[in-house]
Amino acid sequence: MPVEIERKFLVASDGWKRNTIKSIRLRDGLIAAVDGRKVRVRIADDRGMLTVKGARTGYARDEFEYAIPLVDAEAMLAHHCEGRIVTKTRHLVREEGFTFEVDVYGDLLDGIIIAEAELSFANQTFPRPSWLGEEVTGRSEYKKINMLRARMKLSID
Fold it and tell me: How far is CA 5 from CA 8, 34, 116, 122, in A?
């Protein structure tokens, strides 16, 4: 069974920019979420993906990801995400042979930057560059849906 093991961090500075090897424009839409499980549609540049994630156990969760036609992904974003759409640019950043994913959010989440370390196993060691800030893995306020809710509430108040 495919498993995603990741740790998330705030970004302390823009030092990550010097080691960016690739950037990908993403649009994510949450189709359904219940008890820590979710179904998401994503457009990465010009590719559509459907992802099913299980509930998190520590740093790990089951993750199933499938390529879908771009036209289907566009339709799902437009008709099945109820405004729960996030835009971001994902920068792949190499540090000491390890690749971090640095997500720079746009639109409603503009100004939020989160780095992810995708691991092969839970206790894998990885570099800790000076730009890597506080760890926020598992903190509910840094889940995308909660960040959206907080920003939406602020924009209404």
Answer: 10, 20, 10, 6
Structure confidence by residue, pLDDT tens digits, 110-131: 999 999 999 999 899 999 999 9
List, for residues 40-68, the tens digit of each pLDDT value. 999 999 999 999 999 988 889 999 999 99
Residue listed under structure tokens 């509910």: 140
DSSP SS3 for 96: coil
pTM: 0.91
- Per residue, the 3-state secondary structure of 18-60, as one string, reads HHEEEEEEEEEEEEEEECCEEEEEEEECCEEEEEEECCCECCE
- Quote the CATH superfamily of domain 3-156: Hypothetical Protein Pfu-838710-001 (2.40.320.10)
